[in-house]
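seq as requested:
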Amino acid sequence: MILGDRADVTDIFGNIKSSDQVEQAALDTLKLWWKTYSREFELQRNLPQDSLPLPKSYLTAARVDHENADQLPAVVVVSPGLSGKKPHLEGDGTYRADFAIGIGVFVAGRDRNSTKSLCRWYVSIARAIMLHRQTLGGFADGTTWVDESYDDRFTFEDNQTVGAGQCIFEITVHDVVQRWGGPPVPVGPDPDTQPGSDYGVVETVSAVVEIEE
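struct tokens:
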């Protein structure tokens, strides 16, 4: 569920979307589809069924505790903000923006070689899900693959190794904010309308027509 999202916002404020909604939409998509794509990866590599353990945690956080192997495998989604592209002003006064988002995977293997493989396999699964389910459940307009990298230098004292990898995307989101929206003056919050689509509606109009020669 995308927290705080209302697809039918019609009041004078319009939508006020933030990067945490982008993170949550990506995380929900990965969690929903991971098992399906993990099994497809096993079939393509002739791996035994369920040989790739499902992620134990899906997080929208910038950091995973590398010393807690019980969390692994883990999928972490982070959006630091816009991708660097200038937001686009649409004809209806709303802005379309490209958010940068990183999908990180953290895995633990019995040795460095197995960890290295697991790291790359899990990143590949995340990449496929993001590119196949580009709207993230209807939240986004599209997803662009930007970069991919790996880091397997983490080590536990018991010689178990931990690997990390990430793939970077641009997520295009429409109607992020409305230009020139909002009420003309500050008003007290109303639990139902705030101030709502009925704010400032003119019920009657008086007009005088003068004919000029």
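Confidence is low (pLDDT under 50) at residues 1-7.
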